[in-house]
Amino acid sequence: MAIQEFVTLRLAHQLLGIPVLSVHDVLKPHKITPTPLAPDWVEGVLNLRGKIVTAIDMRRRLGLPPRKITTGFGMSIVIEYQGEPYSLLIDSVCEVLALDDENFERNPVTLDSRWRQASAGIYQLQNELLIILDVERLLDLDFSIAA
Amino acid sequence: MDELLTDFLAETQEAIDIVDNELLRFELNPNDKAVLDNIFRLVHTIKGTCGFIGLPRLEAIAHAAENILGKIREGKLTANSNIVTSILLSIDCIKFILANLHKTGLEPDGNDLKLIAELNAVADQSDNNNLNIHSMEVLTETAFTQSRQDYTSYNEPEASSKEDQAKLGTQNIRVSVDLLENLMTLVSELVLTRNQLTQLVRKSENSEFTIPVQRLSQCTTELQEGVMKTRMQPIGNAWSKMPRIIRDLSKDLGKKITLDLKGQDTELDRQVLEMIKDPLTHMIRNSVDHGIEKPEVRRLSGKSETGHIRMNAYHEGGYIIIEIADDGRGLNLAKLKSKAIESGLVTAADAEALSDNQIHKFIFHPGLTTADAVTSVSGRGVGMDVVRANIEKISGKIDVSSQEGHGTKFSIKIPLTLAIVSALIIESGGERFAIPQISVLELVRTASDSENRIERINETPVLRLRNRLLPLVFMNSILKLKDTPSENDEMFIIVSQVGSFIFGIVVDQVFDTEEIVVKPVAPILKNLTIYSGNTILGDGSVIMILDPNGIANIISQNRIEDENSQRNEDIQASLNNKESMLIFSAGNSTPKAVPLSLVARLEDVQTNTIEFSEGKPTVQYRNKMVPLLFIDQDCQLKSEGRQPLLVFNDGDLTMALIVDEILDIIETDLKIDLSNERNGRVGSAIIAGKVTEIIDVGHYFTRTFKEFLKKPEDRVLDLFAMPKSKKLLLVDDSSFFQTMLKPILMAAGYTVTTAPNASEALKLREDGEIFNIIISDIEMPGLSGFDFAQTVRESGPWSETPMIALSSLNQAKDIERGRLSGFNDYVAKFDRDSLLTVIDRQIKFHSEAA
User: Fold this and answer.
1) What pLDDT, in 10s, does the model give residues B587-620?
2) Which chain B residues touch A46 with a CB distance below 8 Å?
């Protein structure tokens, strides 16, 4: 029985998880410089301790309704993909969960295609389901949301 | 001292020291193959390099030593202390020569024939007899006693150069490139931090940090310059391969070529150097392959048999300029032009207006380079677009100038370094961006009250700048940002140049310039060519760096889209039978007209430039004789002043019609009444309320060029009896023919749709268009007429539609092939009258059959 830890986060009420080891930072709202002409899910770039980090709007990326303006910039989680840092903008960060592999399951085949692409699998928690994000898929340009 | 020699000395010194030690190890254990291999390799390298940089004495001795080592390696010689001694001796000799080289830059006088002879004797022993080892040993023993004494004399000057040697050891150290790159990155970060600190200090007055920060700033600048210097390499490093490439290639191609290199010492950033290596090699290959002619050709054209290629590099401002020039045949203008027209880069009419230089630039166009014909005939071509792309990648520029028959010169302008650039900070649509200073030609402030105002032609903004019209683009619309109108209309225009295209970028605000460290953008933004990178500013915020090349790309993309929509409009217009007609007067008072699209250009020549050849008037235009034709007998040349001409082009044929005056251009519904009476008229139509004669340009081409058209027959058709509004599809790649035939067919009562090639025509089929008859050219780019007919016949709504082939191929076998492909009839291309007959016959036949 293997235990894995995940940082969990909320995006439009859905609970999502990212393996704790791949999370570099959790950021408060930051000043973001927009990058016009980039895909709409690229929010812009920001300076994280002298490093330039590309900010990804997760709601847009997953085809969710945009965040209400009143909530301002949400929290973000910094991950690294192919040596480059990316900051994933989300609604809020929740706790870190240690989960047993036993509860891990593949995506149900009936899952909506955009979610199926972004999800590496699902953990059954007591009260709800936790979707594990496939970070590499998310940052792949070819990955498009067929909404 | 020569840079190359210094490098060589440092490297060889190192190698020799290793050989010394390795030899001793080898003596102890003569069976250690790895050690022997290592020694052999090092000596071999020394020999090779000597040969390369021209040190014959050193080369000879190294060669002799290598010989012995080789024999040992092959097992023909067994190593013993004597042999090792002999090799050590040769190493000492090498050291001696090296020391002298270091001191004077030259090999010492004299030679080492004696030592070499002895070494060779040692080597040769093995060939004669392996059993004779003992006697050989005796021989070597005695022979070397002598040499050893000589060696002491070698040692003498070496002793005096001890000091130099020590210096030689410490003068250069070899550092891995990775380490330098790393250092550069760190310095870049330091520069950024410095910028941030300075900004902070600037904000707080009388801070105790002011002085230390100033000091830090200065140190950082010096450090930055120092590290940059370590990355600098002479361009000669990139050129070192060239003589060899030229030698090999010219030998293969049977050409005689000399290469002049100038300015090898010019230094530039390693990164930049790496990036231009391949393009340079490519261009040199091109020069040898296509530029320089064969000796016999050169002799015939009065040049010396030996071709010259010259490479030159020098600094100019913050740039390095590299020139590659040859005295070969130059670029073939006419070929380039026709190729450019063929591949749709430019219309025939526009091409006429281009300067030679603009035409030369087509070789950098990707569309052109894929075609082999250009490269084999006109020279340059293959991959020049790649060369340009590579150079532009490092913010460089490439230009070409050529004179046919006299040679071609490429010049490349590249920045010295890529890592740290000075950039202009601008604001547009409420966001800040950086533009590298090097791409800014000048800055212009505009406001409603200033003398520089943005004016508009239709919707297109332009700026009058020193009597030239500068096309403008709005940064915020390029970036799809919101409009942010300022109060007094104040705006700034950044004048930038990409290739030969100079344009202005309109921005809302210009701030100061800042030294910025270009960092590559994240991979997911890589395909946005508009950004060359991003960076962190002094205030800690990230800023995107704009790439003027990318902006120019977007502009041209927009233009292509515009043109596409324009073309759609054209198609729409042609469906509506709208034609732009050029109205002019000539001879009698009836206004005359030709479709504007047929006219290549309008000329206005001095009457005294009109010459007569065989009694017929001609003018010279771009070294070509252009025949002038009267529309009627009653037309006359003007006796003085300027004579307006209408110039027509078809392929290589050019002629001009003499007219009295050009009146107007009118877009009109073309309803032509066909006339049978006069040659040279399609008929007449009412244009702008006046009866206007429509000139049959084809008729004048016939009169001028026999090959253009066969003998016209009298029209036999009662055209007015034709059933009206039969739909006809004309597929022909020559827009000239399209335009020429269209009015004739329309006049004959058909509704004409044109398609430039088979695939366009098939698109119409997919769109559900139905035609009564299809007329198709045979030789077309892409699908040929035969293939087109087959495709049409195979299936689909057109499978029963009558098809007529229109071609200059009128051999019996072609006609047979046409019939087999599915054409119902076959008409020679210029035989318009039989065309009308055939169309009529086919339509009648098919409607009866139906």
Assistant:
1) 777 888 887 777 877 888 888 888 887 777 888 8
2) 542
Instruction: Give all strands of the β-sheet with B319-326 in edge-to-edge order.
Output: B257-262, B307-316, B319-326, B407-415, B397-403
Which among A31, A82, A139 has the least Cβ separation from residue B541? A31
In this prediction, residue B476 carries a pLDDT of 85
> How close, in Å, is residue B430 to chain A by CA atoms?
10
Q: What is the ipTM of this complex?
A: 0.85
A93 Cα to chain B: minimum distance (Å)? 25
At the topology level of CATH, where does B178-231 sit? Helix Hairpins (1.10.287)
Residue A28 lies in a domain: yes
Q: Which residue of B has its CA nearest to A136?
A: B524
- The architecture in CATH of the region B420-554 reads Beta Barrel (2.40)
* Residue A144 lies inside a defined structural domain of this protein: no
Q: Flag if B534 and A46 touch (Cβ within 8 Å).
A: no
Q: Which two tokens stand for residue B825?
A: 């009839």
Phi, psi (rounded to 5 degrees) for B309: -120, 135
Query: In the prediction, which pLDDT does B161 show?
Result: 46
pLDDT reading at B137 higher than 70: no
Residue B111 CA to residue B15 CA, distance in Å, equals: 23
Show the beta-strand stretches assigned E in B339-465. 397-403, 407-415, 420-428, 431-436, 440-446, 454-457, 460-465
Whether A147 maps to a domain, the answer reads no
Please give the DSSP secondary-structure letter assigned to residue B519. Answer: B
CATH number at residue A112: 2.40.50.180
pLDDT at A86: 92
> What CATH architecture is B716-850?
3-Layer(aba) Sandwich (3.40)
Q: Residue B590 half-sphere exposure, CB side, CA atoms within 13 Å?
A: 15
| Chain A residue with the nearest C-alpha to that of B192 | A50
The average pLDDT across B153-163 equals 46
Q: For B194, which residue in chain A has the nearest alpha carbon? A: A50
Is A109 in CB contact (< 8 Å) with chain B?
no
> Which of A36, A44, A54 minimises the CB distance to B524?
A54
Superfamily of domain B3-171: HPT domain (1.20.120.160)
From chain A, pick out residues whose CB is under 8 angstroms from the CB of B543: 33
Max avg pLDDT among B33-37, B94-98, B212-216: B212-216
Indicate the fold that domain B576-709 takes in CATH.
Answer: OB fold (Dihydrolipoamide Acetyltransferase, E2P) (2.40.50)
Residue of B522, B530, B536 lying closest to A54 (CB–CB): B522
Q: What span, in angstroms and rounded, lies between the C-alpha atoms of B577 and B597?
A: 14
pLDDT digits (tens, 9 = 90+) for B410-467: 988 887 766 677 889 999 888 899 998 878 889 988 877 777 778 888 778 888 888 7
Whether A33 sits inside 8 A of B479 (CB atoms) is no
Cα B701 to the center of its chain, rounded Å: 37
- Which is it for strands A14-19 and A129-133: parallel, antiparallel or unpaired? parallel
Q: Determine, for residues B543 and A33 on separate chains, whether the beta-carbon distance falls below 8 Å.
A: yes
Report domain extents, chain B: 3-171, 178-231, 236-415, 420-554, 576-709, 716-850
Answer yes or no: are the C-beta atoms of B436 and B395 closer than 8 Å. yes
Chain A residue numbers with beta carbons less than 8 Å from the beta carbon of B427 are none
Task: Give A31 to chain B, closest Cα distance, Å.
Answer: 8
